[in-house]
């Protein structure tokens, strides 16, 4: 009888424990949904409070991890991009196998992108401006694109990645032209080569190759100039710069005939 009584008590304890676990998970889920409703309606302050409460009250539920990510979203919505970026980064570090890692990496890159001074896009010729956020955003977007080619955020990330690259190329070309105009062709060549080697995915690379060829012409290095122009024509045949390169090639042929 004693054994039977113990077995019954053990069964009741297990049932109670299972019920408690189900209740724990359900309450965490309901609180998460409540927080998402607030976030979706752009009530960031209330959403942040709810997600913080969820983390503290249900730390062992799977929704506690999601709450960390949503708190980063709250910072992003509030335009606190520095804080948001750090939280997205922390999420990836803590939960590298989580299904939302791709989203977190994308949003981390977007947080950095949002910190690029708007004036850089308007006045790219002011090359003294700080480009650190543009460089960092490009690196983060590239990392995301390499790891998550099937992500629904891929195309948007690629667009912003190329914007960052174009901004960096404009910076390099502004300096290259500054050197070119002052007859410092070696300095201009170094900048053009940097664009070709390190920023080759930018749509502005043809401008760097054309300027490279023009530098060689100024330096009376005909062979190098012809190589640059021929490479430009072959690599980017439909570009405006390729048309200019063809004119240089034809002009050189005419000079040789003479």
Report the strand count: 0
Low-confidence stretches at least 5 residues in length (pLDDT < 50)?
A: 1-16
Helical coverage, percent range: over 70%
Structural class: mainly alpha
- CATH fold node name of one domain: Serine Threonine Protein Phosphatase 5, Tetratricopeptide repeat
Average per-residue pLDDT, rounded, comes to 89
Q: What is the H-and-E element order?
A: HHHHHHHHHHHH
Percentage of residues in DSSP E strands = under 5%
**Total helical elements:** 12
**Whole-number radius of gyration?**
29 Å
In whole angstroms, the N-to-C terminal distance is 118 Å
CATH architecture of one domain: Alpha Horseshoe
Shape: elongated
| CATH class (first level) name of one domain | Mainly Alpha
Q: CATH homologous superfamily of one domain - what is it?
A: Tetratricopeptide repeat domain
> How is the biggest beta sheet arranged?
none
Write a structural description.
This protein is an all-alpha fold and 258 residues long. The chain has a domain at 27-91: Tetratricopeptide repeat domain (Serine Threonine Protein Phosphatase 5, Tetratricopeptide repeat), CATH 1.25.40. The protein has helices at 2-40, 44-57, 62-77, 81-94, 101-113, 119-122, 132-147, 154-181, 185-198, 205-218, 222-235, 240-257. Helix 8 (154-181) packs antiparallel against helix 9 and helix 10 packs parallel to helix 12 (240-257).
């Amino acid at each position: 009888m004693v054994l039977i009584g113990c077995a019954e008590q053990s069964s009741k304890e297990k049932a109670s424990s299972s019920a408690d676990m189900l209740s724990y998970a359900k309450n965490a889920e309901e609180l998460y949904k409540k927080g998402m409703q607030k976030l979706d309606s752009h009530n960031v302050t209330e959403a942040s409070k709810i997600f913080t409460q969820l983390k503290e009250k249900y730390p062992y539920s799977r929704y506690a991890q999601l709450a960390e990510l949503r708190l980063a979203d709250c910072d992003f919505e509030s335009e606190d991009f520095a804080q948001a970026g750090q939280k997205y980064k922390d999420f990836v570090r803590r939960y590298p196998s989580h299904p939302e890692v791709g989203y977190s990496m994308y949003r981390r890159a977007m947080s950095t992108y949002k910190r690029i001074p708007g004036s850089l896009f308007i006045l790219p010729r002011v090359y003294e401006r700080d480009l650190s956020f543009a460089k960092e955003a490009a690196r983060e977007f590239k990392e995301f694109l390499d790891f998550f080619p099937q992500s629904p955020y891929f195309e948007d990330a690629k667009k912003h990645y190329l914007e960052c690259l174009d901004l960096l190329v404009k910076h390099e070309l502004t300096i290259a032209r500054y050197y070119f105009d002052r007859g410092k062709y070696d300095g201009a060549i170094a900048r053009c080569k940097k664009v070709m080697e390190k920023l080759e995915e930018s749509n502005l690379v043809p401008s760097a190759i054309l300027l490279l060829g023009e530098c060689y012409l100024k330096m009376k290095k005909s062979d190098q100039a012809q190589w640059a122009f021929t490479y430009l024509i072959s690599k980017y045949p439909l570009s405006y710069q390729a048309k200019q390169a063809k004119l240089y090639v034809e002009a050189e042929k005419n000079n040789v005939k003479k």
